[in-house]
Amino acid sequence: MFGNYKAEEQYEKLTKLVNLLGIEPGRIGLEWISAAEGPRFAEVINGFVNTIRELGPSPVAKTNGVLESATDFDLRNYHLYECLECGRCTGDCPVARTNKFSPRRLLSRGISRGLGEIASDPSVWECLTCRLCENVCPSDIPYSELNIKIRSVSLELNVENTCTHGGVFEQISTLMTRPGLKQKKT
């Protein structure tokens, strides 16, 4: 039964994604059909094909795969929807070892809730942007780059933020690059 629950969960995510992209919901479907139900399978497939014919060409095909929706924030450019949910990113994440933070969970929220919701989520500030998650990701999702972009949107929305490391690394960089700073070589 676990596979069916997983399929249903993925279908719900796909439904939200299709809605986010402005694609008609009739272009996807989920049916539970046993291998012994050949005639029912043929009926469902024929009905689906007829629905697609009635809908006509895909809006994605009309624009060479690039939709003109501002709400999807070009998340497609970050391969967000290619996440295999293998959990390798969370397994290697140093923050996940001490917090309830998970790169995979944040990606999943981005798909299901959209940019506004994910940019308002304080967990985007928990990431160290160390890129360890990217080193093990089989889908090559540029998580750190995406997280930095989401943080910029978060700042535009005036969401309160606190980095996991409290901005220590930025402070050190600022101190070490001050104009007029002389090195003490001994």
Characterization of this structure:
This protein is an all-alpha fold. It folds into two domains: 2-62, no CATH class; 73-167, Fumarate Reductase Iron-sulfur Protein, Chain B, domain 2 (Orthogonal Bundle), CATH 1.10.1060.10. The chain is 49% helix and 0% strand. The chain contains nine helices and no strands. It has helices at residues 2-21, 38-55, 59-62, 88-92, 103-113, 115-119, 132-136, 143-156, 168-176. Helix 1 crosses helix 5 (103-113). Residues 63-72 have low confidence and may be disordered.
Entry summary:
By secondary structure, the protein is an all-alpha fold. Helices cover 49% and strands 0% of the residues.
Write the layout of secondary structure elements.
Elements: H1 2-21, H2 38-55, H3 59-62, H4 88-92, H5 103-113, H6 115-119, H7 132-136, H8 143-156, H9 168-176
